[in-house]
Amino acid sequence: MSELRFVHLGFGGDAVEYREAWQKQREVHAARFADEIPDTCLLLEHLPVYTAGRRTEDSERPLDGTPVVDVDRGGKITWHGPGQLVGYPILKLPRPVDVVAHVRRLEEALIRTAADFGVRTTRVEGRSGVWVLGDPVEERPAPAGAGGLSLDFDPRVNDTEFDPRLNGPEYAPSNAGQRREDRKLAQIGIRVAKGVTMHGFSMNVNPDNTWFDKIVPCGIRDAGVTSLSYELGHDLGVAEVLPVVERHLRDVLEAAEPQPREVEAESVAPARA
């Protein structure tokens, strides 16, 4: 892949409103499609905002009517805000684009970033993003008020409509670390238009993760969220993580040799005489 250019849109007191960054993505996307600029990754922090991808269900949105920005990326609902490093890699890839391979490359860069800070992460089959795996079920603490019952009695196991937002803080996504469950460190949601990628990833560095408790993050009811600071047990700033993310994105994306997605040829029935 060609050299990757990084553009910083704003951090901290200069955090960027979501719609402003979305418009900037469109402008950069059009310029990249026209080969006016090289592959470009926008990096920033957002002001607090909930965004919903195309697959978001009504039951996953905030119950109190908090506004949500509906966007044209894949995936479901998530939150962006201070303490979270957001990246929008806008890359031209061979068509038809292998979207899964692109997501895997982003995951790899973020897994390497977490490892550099001493946090072991991985992928979870069927769930995009970067995860800290929880303890085996039998070793996890029982939820508060469960009377010492095994987590085999966890209502989420068999109730597909279980809503953690209505069942107290012991089931809140932000408390997944205390429950020693699987918890997501970085979210990924993308869109591809005309062979050029948009949207991207967000990595939780030191945000207030209780923002996630108003929604069903990424539509996942049986896991939660975490941050680098929580896993490390001490505060870490976005400014410290930013150059590490850049280095690994550059290493992974520039070294990649993307291939078009394989398309199976449709069988054609022989014509009848």
UniProtKB/TrEMBL annotation:
The keyword Cytoplasm applies. Residues 144-182 are annotated as: Disordered. The record marks K184 as: Lowers pKa of active site Cys. Substrate binds at R73, G74, G75, K76, I77, T78, W79, H80, G200, F201, S202. Its main location: cytoplasm. It is found in: Cytoplasm. The active site is at C218 (acyl-thioester intermediate). It catalyses: octanoyl-[ACP] + L-lysyl-[protein] = N(6)-octanoyl-L-lysyl-[protein] + holo-[ACP] + H(+). InterPro entries: aa-tRNA-synth_II/BPL/LPL (IPR045864), BPL_LPL_catalytic (IPR004143), Octanoyltransferase (IPR000544), Octanoyltransferase_CS (IPR020605). Residues 153-164 have a biased composition (Basic and acidic residues). Pfam families: LplA-B_cat (PF21948). In the reaction, the free carboxyl group of octanoic acid is attached via an amide linkage to the epsilon-amino group of a specific lysine residue of lipoyl domains of lipoate-dependent enzymes. Catalyzes the transfer of endogenously produced octanoic acid from octanoyl-acyl-carrier-protein onto the lipoyl domains of lipoate-dependent enzymes. Lipoyl-ACP can also act as a substrate although octanoyl-ACP is likely to be the physiological substrate. This is Octanoyltransferase. It comes from Streptomyces niveus (Streptomyces spheroides). The gene is lipB.
